[in-house]
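In the current project phase, we have settled on a layout for protein records. One protein thus recorded is set out beneath this paragraph:
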Amino acid sequence: MPLLSDFDGVLVDSTPVVEAAWSRWAGERGVVFETMLPRLHGRPGRDVLREFAPHLDADDELVVIDEYELAGTGDITVMPGARELIETAGPRWAIATSGSHPVATARIRAVGLPMPPVLVTASDITHGKPHPEPYLKAAAQLRVDPRDCVVVEDAPAGIEAARAAGMYVIAVANTHDAAVLGEADAIYATTTDAIPALRAWLGTRGPAPRSP
C-alpha cells in the first residue's frame, strides 16, 4: 500500500531554520512574528503571507524567504526514524510538502535522504494544505486510489488535508502537541514510534480501521 509523507517535521527537523527565516523576514517587514507563528507550520508560505501581509506581493516575498531558508540548509537534521520510515514504504511512496521545490530538494540532498518517486511541493499546486490537493496530486502521480493511502503528518493543516483526501492519517507529535493532532486516525509521539504501526498497515490489503 502507498505511503505518503509530509517532509518537514516528519522526515527532517527544520523548525529552527524555518522559524529563523520567517522571524527575520517579519522583523524586516514590520510583521509581528509571534502572532504569525501559531499559523506558520504545515502551510504553504504563500498562504501565510496572504493572511499576515496581504499588502505585499506574495511571490516576491517568497523569493526572499526561500533565500533565508536555503541559507540554513546545512542546519537541517534527519528525524530519528525517518530512514526506517522510507525503508518501510518500499517503492511506492511520496512526499507532499508545503515548502517550495528548491527548498525541499535542497534539504533532501543535504541530509542524504533518497529522493522520493513522487515529490509534490508548494511550487506544484494551486491550493495548499489544509486543502486536499497536495495529497490527491501525490496519489494521482503514484497512480493509486487515495483511499488506499496512509499519510504521516505532524501538523493540523496536513492532517486536515489528508483526511479531506479520504486517506488514513498517522500523526507524529514531533513539532506539535498531541492535543492539536486529534483529527488523525492514530497519534504517536515520534516518527520512530509510528514505524511498527506503519509496517502493520502497509502489510495489509485494505485500510486500517478508523478510530471511532
